[in-house]
Specification:
The protein contains 19 helices and 23 strands. The protein is of the alpha/beta class. Strands 16, 17, 18, 19, 20, 21, 22 and 23 form an 8-stranded antiparallel beta sheet that branches.
Length: 570
């Protein structure tokens, strides 16, 4: 009998949750499914837990969430003694259950709990940690993953996700916890009655909205230059806060996509509720087209990512996360320079996989660019460091190509509420000049050259997929290519070793923490980055290319991506 089947039998004997018990019995004769559910323990890392809902050690359920929370309690007890934790949750299936279960365990361990009494965006959780002086935060969400997923993210006292070292410490505590006998708990209602669990009040939500508003670049532009907006929360947690912020900045004409307005963890009209995906935006695009509105805004289920489409020359055009990030940089610097509020030595922070157009534009604008590893916690960490030095005003913008943005220190995570405000501001500002965001982007290209950024993803589900992904990355490290798609490799960077090897044999140090990233710089200046996703069973390949025209950039992409597929064997 395999180890997986032994674990399966143990769970069948000990699980007392009726739904999970039924789920276990339903796969009794499905050995591959049993193997996938029990071949490993759902990994806990800097992004916390994320996995498919269901029974098993490799699934999201009250037992895996319970063990993670008990481990977190033990870590907090050792690190802080007395502690307080803020909790938020989104619209996903079992999010409320997992949030309340976490509160019950924290309370039983003597930890004060502040929990929202309604769905709230992830950045509101980050804000609440600072506002309520908590030592940690939990948000139950799987962000933009399909409906079968849920997740559990943990934040530290500085309101960004745990560092690798902290995550490892919590993991060691989790590994000491027995799923069925090692978890302390009290009833949620008892915690409320005794005060160890408290609901986060409207005053904190209002303070969050006020903090977002404080990051306005132009307080009156949306009233002076009215715009019309179609908004979709993609059945997630953004509806309340995004609509509130649009109202506060003076956007009066707002239509919400009716099929995607209310919370629904099944995401019936957008199986992949990611604003980067055309399918998720389809209903909003149709409504925007029918109404003739200026822009479409979309936020993902936990409202930390924002997607945008704009009306341009009679058609609706979707913009990428990279394009929005560059437009935000242009707008913020342009307007703050005009109003005399641009700080000395301004900074924009982006992930290493985000567009190099940002570097080119920042050079034109006189702004310093700081690259960090993928994961907004690294941007949040830098914001916290600047604030501690009294230099928070230098931070203009942090962004990731995956549609995450932040323009101030009010939160330490990407904030789609904040992004929605700035996107509407710049749309209104450029409309007052007779321009669309596409016109502005074309102007940037005319100065900086035509850039093309593409992300390709390759999915590898289950145990076999995990082994295959690891093998691909080992093979790439064992034999670095000299060319990709007919273009010579000028440098190969391995973020695990911290070294960049040049074609002539020289070496450079990569001044970033260790990470499972491979980067290839080609002779033509193109960049190819290969990394496993931290939240999904995928290998992602990021292309940043530039050429004189879009057609030439697309030809480059076709050549180089074909070479990458050959290297990966996909």
């Amino acid at each position: 009998m395999s180890d997986s089947h032994k674990l399966y039998q143990t769970w069948c004997e000990k699980v007392d949750d009726p739904a999970l018990k039924a789920d276990l019995l339903a796969v009794a004769n499905d050995e591959p499914e049993i193997g996938d559910r029990f071949y490993r323990t759902l990994s806990f890392g800097t992004a916390g837990l994320r996995g498919v809902l269901g029974a098993g050690t490799n699934r999201m359920n009250v037992y895996t969430v319970g063990a993670a929370t008990q481990g977190l309690c033990q870590w907090l007890g050792k690190k802080y003694g007395d502690a307080a934790v803020a909790i938020a949750y989104d619209s996903r299936n079992n999010s409320t259950l997992f949030a309340q279960r976490s509160a019950e365990i924290l309370a039983a361990n003597g930890i004060k709990v502040h929990i929202f009494d309604e769905l709230m965006p992830t950045p509101a959780l980050s804000f609440a940690i600072l506002h309520l002086h908590c030592q940690a935060g939990i948000v139950v969400t799987a962000s933009h993953n399909p409906a079968k997923y849920n997740g559990y993210k943990v934040y530290g006292p500085e309101a960004y996700q745990l560092s690798p070292e902290e995550a490892d410490e919590v993991l060691r505590e989790i590994e000491t916890v027995d799923y069925f006998s090692g978890i302390k708990t009290i009833p949620f209602e008892e915690g409320l009655r005794t005060g160890v669990i408290q609901y986060i009040g409207k005053d904190t939500v209002d303070a969050y909205i006020d903090a977002v508003l404080s990051e306005q670049v132009d307080k009156d532009i949306c009233r002076q230059s009215p715009i019309s907006v179609v908004y979709t929360p993609l059945n997630g947690a953004g509806n309340h806060c995004v609509r509130k912020i649009l109202d506060r900045i003076g956007v009066e004409t707002v239509a919400v996509v009716p099929e995607q307005e209310q919370p629904d963890g099944d995401f019936p009209t957008c199986p992949y509720p990611n604003p980067e995906e055309a399918t998720a935006m389809e209903l909003g695009l149709r409504l925007c087209e029918r109404l003739g509105y200026d822009i479409l805004l979309a936020t993902d289920p936990d409202s930390d990512r924002a997607g945008v489409a704009v009306r341009h020359q009679g058609r609706i055009v979707r913009l990428s996360g990279n394009e929005i990030g560059v437009l935000m940089l242009q707008y913020i610097v342009e307007r703050r320079r005009e109003t005399g509020t641009l700080p000395k030595d301004p900074i924009v922070v982006k992930s290493v996989v985000s567009t190099k157009l940002c570097d080119r534009l920042a050079g034109e604008l006189g702004v310093q660019v700081i690259d960090v590893l993928t994961g907004f916690k690294y941007i949040g960490e830098l914001v916290a460091e600047l604030e501690q030095k009294g230099e928070a005003d230098r931070f203009l913008l942090g962004f990731e190509e995956s549609s995450g943005y932040l323009t101030g220190p009010h939160a330490r995570d990407k904030d789609a509420v904040n992004a929605a405000m700035i996107i509407c501001e710049m749309t209104a500002y450029y409309k007052s000049k007779g321009k669309t965001l596409l016109d502005v982007l074309d102007g940037i290209y005319s100065v900086c050259g035509r850039y093309l950024n593409v992300v390709d993803s390759y999915t590898f589900e289950g145990e076999d997929g995990s082994v295959k992904m690891a093998g691909m990355l080992r093979a790439l490290r064992a034999g670095a290519p000299s060319e990709i798609g007919g273009h010579a490799v000028a440098a190969t960077g391995d973020y695990l070793s911290g070294k960049r090897v040049l074609a002539d044999g020289g070496e450079e140090t990569i001044a970033l923490p260790e990470s499972d990233i491979l980067e290839y710089t080609l002779e033509n200046g193109a960049s190819v980055i290969v990394r496993p996703s931290g939240t999904e069973p995928k290998i992602k390949v990021y292309y940043s290319l530039s050429a004189a025209t879009l057609e030439q950039a697309q030809q480059l992409y076709e050549q180089i991506s074909a070479g990458v597929k050959a290297l990966l064997g996909v």
